[in-house]
Amino acid sequence: MEPSEGTHGGGAKKPKAPSASPVAALSDDLLRQILFRLPDMASLANAALAEKRWYAVASDPAVFRRFDSLRRPLLLGFILTDRGDQYFPGRCSNLRFVRATRGYPNLASVAAGADFFFEDLSDDDSDDEEERYSSDVDWRLRGCAGGRLLLSRGYNGLRLAVYDPIARTAVFLHPSTVFHSIHRVRYAISVDEADGSFLVIGVVDFNAAVFSSRSGKWVKFEGDDFIERSGTMDDDWDWSDLDEDDIYEFPGGGIMSRRRFEEQDTIDSIYKIQADGMAAGRFAYWRSDTKKCSYSKPVERILLLDTTTMKWSVIAAPFPPGESYCVADMPEHGGL
What we know:
Layout: H1 28-36, H2 41-48, H3 52-58, H4 61-69, E1 77-81, E2 95-99, H5 105-112, H6 129-132, E3 139-145, E4 148-153, E5 159-164, E6 169-173, E7 186-191, E8 198-204, E9 207-212, E10 217-222, E11 247-249, E12 255-257, H7 258-271, E13 278-280, E14 283-287, E15 301-306, E16 311-316
Antiparallel strand pairs: 1-2, 3-4, 4-5, 5-6, 7-8, 8-9, 9-10, 11-12, 13-14, 14-15, 15-16
């Protein structure tokens, strides 16, 4: 009788090497397709932590962009306006809706039933005497984001509305509770497409306020809570410590500390904002519109609000004054 293997005289049985998991045999392309089918960003983050290879694939900027684009609502179309050179709608502009050309039959029926020209928006719930007896009661389009339209009523903009043209529902706001010169406020709207909550942001002079639909309240930003300033005047500078690069010479004569000049130029650019802002991902931004100004400014500046941190900042556009440009949020690159 032969001795059993692994008992008497026979060598110990070698343990089998662990077989490779089926996932390890997948190509990167197949792994990407699997990741694209995960339900949300949290699931993608968890998958990235499974192993190094998964992390390498999931953290690829191209995968991130594709994953995000697959979960965005489909585009219905565009609203075109003839506002022209108006910085803000002093009159009610003519509007035109252009449907998206994608071949989704259901989208055409949705677009056909939507109120993109806000004709069904209620006009009779105002409690403001000036607005009630004014002949200028037309709604004006001030911005759009996430399927919501931001509208102001009349030339003075005594009332705002955030309007859903598909559901034909609106949330009305009264900016006079936080702004004095409400006819000069420049607005932007930012919408969280995950739950439909929104922020309405207004800027006028060196003040700002943000309305949150989640809290139902306005929050004001004034002074250093808006844009922090050094508070140092030229008379307080120790000029002996400044070299040529620290001093700005005006073309017509006179000097100023460069830091003070750049700070003042930043402040001036905020005061001169004349157009409504726009949303770009988690940012809301307002351009100084140098090319539309009748005077020459050396730098085109952009006022930014990061809606995740609620921090304001001003950046210089990386383009010569007068150039056209747009802004996009690139989260895989850490910002704008």
